[in-house]
Design goal:
alpha+beta; five-stranded antiparallel β-sheet; 5 strands; CarD-like/TRCF_RID_sf; Transcription factor YdeB; CarD-like/TRCF_RID; CarD_C
């Protein structure tokens, strides 16, 4: 599915690059693994090639999908009436999908809330991490402009 050099998004971890595809024997079982270098944490992750679909790892979003995401980020309303624990769970579930649109919604909603009042520690950390993951992916999209990236800042 992926080849060496491909940039990917790994939900809850951010953007990474496929550095190698290796055969490894772990616990007596030989499997082929993607070796992924995560860009933000500088961590290396190994995922069996057979589990790549269930891991929700995906390629970097393309410029056409980004146009729709920019619209959502700027124009759509957020649901800020949920109690914070329920909102935190909804946002966590969105981030776990690995979809850029879902992450953009989380950033949008928390950014709007932050303007009205201080976020609690958990939501602040969620905002910071999700925003960093989002910006790191945006920078890798072919054809994106600095102006488009600034919309998400």
């Amino acid at each position: 599915m992926f080849k060496i050099g491909d940039n990917i998004v790994y939900p809850m971890h951010g953007v990474g690059t496929i550095k190698a595809i290796e055969d490894k024997e772990i616990s007596g079982k030989k499997q082929e693994y993607y070796v992924i270098k995560m860009l933000i944490s500088n961590m290396q992750v190994m995922i069996p090639t057979g589990k790549i679909l269930s891991s929700s790892i995906r390629p970097i979003t393309d410029i056409m999908a980004l146009k729709h995401i920019i619209h959502i980020f700027q124009d759509e309303e957020s649901d800020k009436d949920l109690p914070w624990k329920q909102r935190f769970k909804v946002n966590t579930d969105k981030i776990k999908t690995g979809l850029m649109q879902e992450s953009a919604e989380v950033v949008r909603d928390l950014k709007r809330m932050r303007k009205e009042k201080a976020l609690n520690t958990s939501e602040k950390k969620m905002f910071d991490n999700t925003h960093e993951f989002l910006i790191s992916e945006l920078k890798l999209i072919k054809g994106i402009t600095e102006k488009q990236i600034k919309i998400f800042s």
